[in-house]
Design a protein that fits this description.
Structural class: alpha/beta
Helix content: 40-55%
Radius of gyration: 18 Å
Strand content: 15-25%
Shape: elongated
Largest sheet: 6 strands, mixed
Number of helices: 8
CATH architecture of the largest domain: 3-Layer(aba) Sandwich
Length: about 220
């Protein structure tokens, strides 16, 4: 978790307002560790204890975080489905406005394709168009893989293309595919879950910067 948090702070480049930055940091912290405390949140986000308490209460009131009492008079914090959606939205905002986005995206896409080569997965589909998808196509030029095309269920045109590649409405429309790389910045969690419902999860690669949970978006899911 520390590596991911450090990466997303580096990606920020100071482009988000403090309130949004704290909210995103809090949602990420709860996502990664339901057993956190107000004191650990304050320490991790480098804010005052009172401020951490205020933001936790605010997120609970907004329905982004659920609180459950556990033994020893302690509390467990979980993201609600609304909290997951808000975390995805803020992450996309964080990344799309980031000065370091290209560098981090390029490295993580390259690492994903290296893993594909190691596993013998040659034909890879990209789930999601946009900046990350375009960067992935560039990284693929120097990797032992072939991009089969993009997947986007919202595509309406049969001849739609992005970055010179076909956009299909489903994986089946792309033919034989060995692996899928999630490249959707707008709703990465939903895209992962939709893909995992139709394709072996172990063959789905997810850049760390997307902060996707492989256990779904249900409350308490880890």
């Amino acid at each position: 978790m520390a590596d991911q948090d450090a990466a997303i702070r580096t990606l920020n480049g100071g482009t988000l307002d403090p309130e949004t930055e704290i909210t995103l940091g809090l949602l990420n912290a709860v996502h990664e560790n339901s057993a956190l405390t107000q004191r650990s949140v304050a320490r991790e986000l480098d804010i005052a204890l009172g401020l951490a308490n205020a933001y936790l209460k605010r997120c609970v009131k907004k329905g982004l975080i659920k609180v459950s009492q556990v033994p020893a008079n302690r509390y467990a914090y979980y993201l609600t489905p609304k909290g997951f959606a808000e975390k995805s939205r803020l992450t996309a905002e964080y990344l799309s406005s980031s000065f370091g986005f290209f560098r981090a995206a390029r490295q993580q896409c390259t690492d994903a394709f290296i893993e594909c080569g190691r596993q013998g997965w040659r034909h890879v589909a990209l789930a999601g168009t946009g900046d990350l998808g375009e960067i992935a196509t560039l990284c693929a030029l120097e990797a032992p893989v072939t991009i089969a095309g993009f997947v986007d269920p919202a595509v309406g045109e049969t001849d739609a293309r992005f970055a010179g590649l076909r956009i299909a409405g489903s994986l089946d429309d792309l033919g034989s595919v060995d692996a899928v790389l999630i490249t959707d910045l707008r709703a990465p969690q939903a895209t992962y879950e939709r893909t995992a419902a139709a394709f072996p999860p172990e063959r789905i690669l997810v850049p760390r910067l997307l902060h996707v949970s492989r256990n779904g978006s249900r409350p308490g899911g880890r």
